[in-house]
Write a structure and sequence with these properties.
The chain is 37% helix and 17% strand. The chain is an alpha/beta fold. It folds into 2 domains: 3-230, YjeF N-terminal domain (Rossmann fold, 3-Layer(aba) Sandwich), CATH 3.40.50.10260; 239-493, 3-Layer(aba) Sandwich (UDP-N-acetylmuramoyl-L-alanine:D-glutamate ligase), CATH 3.40.1190. The longest helix has 15 residues, at 27-41. Residues 12-215 form the YjeF N-terminal domain.
Length: 496
């Protein structure tokens, strides 16, 4: 699997200590490397600015800002540096002193406001180096006022934050009693590590703000062997493998090409289970059968394709069907409005994999089936219903699922603008590739069928999730601005 490690604030601090204490890095060196990385990564951006202002805090993030100011000045850019107070770290003091010598001075906040009042509209590129990822306290009134000025002013045509947007705290999103005041960064430069707390950073509707990772020589690989690493990863898109995996081999027969059972589609909602099965079969699945509580299911299925199998059935009757013993992949839920009672406490036979979606996502207190290869695919509302908790961020959902998944021995794929896969045995994976094309009815049913297709190839659940999401990502290329689920499926079928 293509994946990159994600580090929490605490883990990033451990890395910092590891680099300095055990490997002998000087903190000034790390700050200098961070500044150079940010400078070179944004050379085209600097050229667009009449003036660059850097706001520096008192910690390591402020030190990075001073180091960047020094580099920009030496490279010929018009740069001004303002600080909330003198820097507290030795390395930060070094660069603060260096900037005072090279730029002539650094301004305080009173001077910042004075210059801001005189500046022209869209004339300043602002670099936010106020607060690092380690800041978790309450903002002072002074900082709140400063951040609100930054966000509301038309002087700043671009706001770039170092490491994180100052004040950003995903753990209080959705909690009405608290207000999260943070810099509305246009982009974030993550320094040394990819930051878990930045995942899902958003302030504009339907738009994740870009974050760029800059390597500065941190001992990431060394740290992965430490017990302090929390086992979180980015899933990287793998579009080519997603396509190649679906192609049938010459020696395949109908079962080795992939077999699956689909259960769902109550009366009036048969289309959901039909779409899931269609995705499976049209993407190369060898054999499948639809079971449904609807008495009309066979007429719908045979109308579309006389070669397909279907049966009106309860879930418990499904398990006694001869086809059940022959297939290893089962999808339950599309087109159901309530959780099948037969699923409560049911034991998934060894060697089979089960996907629970839509109506098969249980409510809080309902017993889940038992097994070691069960994947639930809720959206946020279904997750809230399933756990009895409200979640305003990916981080808060993770905190719930990291307990829920091991306790229930299930995998959970949370479907949102950022997708989160939490496994029962430790690792968790983030998919951060928003796709507005999928914001349409039926794409959840489509995903269930695609997941079933990859699982039928004897791939693990994490591998199947990565490939399914990578495959669906191809739909971004559709010219149709608001494609239907069937249009999306048709375009995907053409790829294989």
């Amino acid at each position: 699997m293509k994946q990159k490690p994600l580090f929490t604030n605490i883990e990033s601090k451990h890395l910092d200590s590891l680099a300095i204490r055990d490997l002998g890095f000087h903190e000034e060196t790390l700050m200098g490397m961070a500044a150079l990385s940010v400078f070179h990564a944004n050379e085209d951006l600097w050229k667009t600015a009449e003036s660059i202002w850097i706001l520096c805090g008192t910690g390591g993030n402020g030190g990075d800002g001073y180091a960047l100011a020094h580099t920009l000045y030496q490279e010929g850019y018009k740069v001004k540096c303002f600080s909330t107070a003198p820097n507290k770290s030795e390395a930060g003091k070094f660069y603060e002193s260096l900037v005072s010598k090279t730029l002539g001075s650094t301004g305080n906040l009173d001077e910042f406001y004075k210059e801001w009042e005189e500046a022209e509209e869209d004339s300043v590129l602002l670099v936010d180096a106020l607060l690092g990822t380690g800041f978790q306290g309450e903002l002072s009134e002074e900082l709140k006022e400063l951040i609100e000025t930054i966000n509301e002013s038309d002087v700043f045509f671009y706001r770039l934050s170092l490491d994180t947007a100052s004040g950003w705290n995903p753990y209080i999103l959705g909690k009405e009693e608290k207000t999260n005041v943070f810099v509305y960064a246009d982009s974030i430069e993550e320094l040394g590590t990819r930051k878990w707390e930045n995942v899902g950073f958003i302030y504009e509707k339907d738009s994740i703000i870009p974050r760029y990772y800059e390597s500065i020589g941190f001992p990431i690989k060394t740290h992965l062997n430490e017990v302090t690493f929390s086992n979180r990863y980015y899933l990287e898109p793998d579009p080519e493998s997603a396509i190649q995996s679906l192609k049938r081999k010459n020696k395949d027969h109908k079962y080795s090409a992939g077999s699956a059972i689909f259960y769902g589609g109550e009366t009036g909602m048969e289309g959901a289970i039909l779409l899931s099965e269609e995705a499976f079969s049209r993407l190369g699945g060898g054999i499948s059968k639809i079971f449904s509580p609807s008495s009309q299911i066979s007429s719908y299925v045979l109308k579309e394709d006389l070669s397909k199998m279907s049966k009106t059935s309860s879930f418990s009757d499904l398990t006694s069907d001869p086809f059940f013993t022959k297939t290893k992949t089962i999808v339950v839920g599309p087109g159901l409005t309530q959780y099948p009672q037969d699923l409560e406490g049911w034991t998934l036979p060894e060697g089979k994999k089960l996907i629970l979606d839509a109506g098969a996502i249980p409510s809080f207190g309902t017993k889940l089936p038992k097994g070691n290869q069960i994947l639930l695919t809720p959206h946020v509302g279904e997750l809230n219903r399933m756990t009895g908790k409200t979640h305003g961020s990916i981080q808060s959902a993770y905190d719930t699922l990291i307990e829920f998944c091991p306790q229930n021995k299930v995998y959970v794929l949370l479907k949102s603008f950022v997708s989160l896969l939490v496994c029962p045995d430790g690792p968790s994976y983030i998919w951060e590739s928003p796709n507005p094309k999928l914001a349409t009815m039926g794409t959840g049913d489509l995903l269930s069928g695609i997941l079933a297709r990859y699982l039928s190839l004897e791939l693990s659940i994490p591998e199947s999730v990565q490939l399914a999401l990578s495959f669906l990502d191809h739909s971004k290329q559709l010219e149709e601005p608001y494609p239907s689920a069937h249009q999306i499926l048709k375009s995907l079928v053409e790829l294989v």
